[in-house]
Amino acid sequence: MASMAPPQHSVQHSATYDANRDRLATYFDSTARKAWIDLTSDAPVSGVRATVRAGREEMRNTLLGWLPEDLRRTRILDAGCGTGALSVAAACRGAEVVGVDVAGGLIEVARQREPFTGHGRIHWQAGDMLDPELGTFAHVVAMDSLIHYREADLIAAIETLGERTAQSILFTFVPRTPLLFAMYQTGKLFPRKDRSPRLVPIAEADLRRSLSRLDGWQVARSHRISRGFYTSHAIELVRRG
Which segments constitute the Magnesium-protoporphyrin IX methyltransferase C-terminal domain (predicted)? Predict the structure, then answer.
């Protein structure tokens, strides 16, 4: 399936953000589409991918646990929703969810899967998570969707999302452990044959210092998950009282 270009809007991004976003759209709509569909389903996968699946499930449950249990009359942005598992879970709790992803093919899979019942609603959208036309939200969740961006671009994205978010922003990053950083430096964090955009490990202390300078936001909860080949760290930002 051909990649769907993100909608045009007035927000100016850095060249590196735009380049990474476009590479992600191409990658997940071509090279990785079948693998991602399998990874986010019950299909048999390799041992390595099974650890990634388990890690992602644990991370998704962690982030959902940081949201209110009753999400009725609550608007949520699932930024980088992929095939939509988190969107569906939030909608089952009553939320109105905007599930957005740069990969139009994954959005089509999400639309086809959508097996939820309840009071919530999901609006699937192919495009850029930073598009202001998506509207305003009580909560934003960006699970493993900012892990390909350098720290400056990640912070800029969080700041942009924060302008349209009333209560909390939940996001993940790849922690800069000695092993992950060595793999990043040698280009082996993903095999070259996968042609995937690199993960960008970020030092937690550096990231926290940058987050502390965001106007009106503070770090609340924090949690790291390591399952085999999956390592990701979640941070909850909340509005300062």
Answer: 142-239
- Give dist(CA 131, CA 8) in Å, integer: 8
pTM for the model: 0.88
- DSSP for 195-211, please give it: -PPPP--B-HHHHHHHH
Any residues with CB less than 8 A from the CB of 68 and at least 6 apart, and which?
A: 74
Cβ count within 10 A of residue 152: 12
Q: Distance between CA atoms of 217 and 91, rounded to whole angstroms?
A: 26
Cβ count near 51 (within 10 Å): 16
81 contact partners, CB below 8 Å, separation of at least 6: 87, 99, 100, 101, 106, 107, 110, 124
Per-residue pLDDT of 58-67, as tens digits, reads 999 999 999 9
> What is 130-193 written as a DSSP string?
T-GGG--EEEEEESSSSTTS-HHHHHHHHHHHHTTEEEEEEEEE-B--HHHHHHHHTT-SS-GG
Domain 15-239, CATH: 3.40.50.150
Q: Can you give the pLDDT at residue 32?
A: 79
Cα distance between residue 19 and residue 13, in whole Å: 10
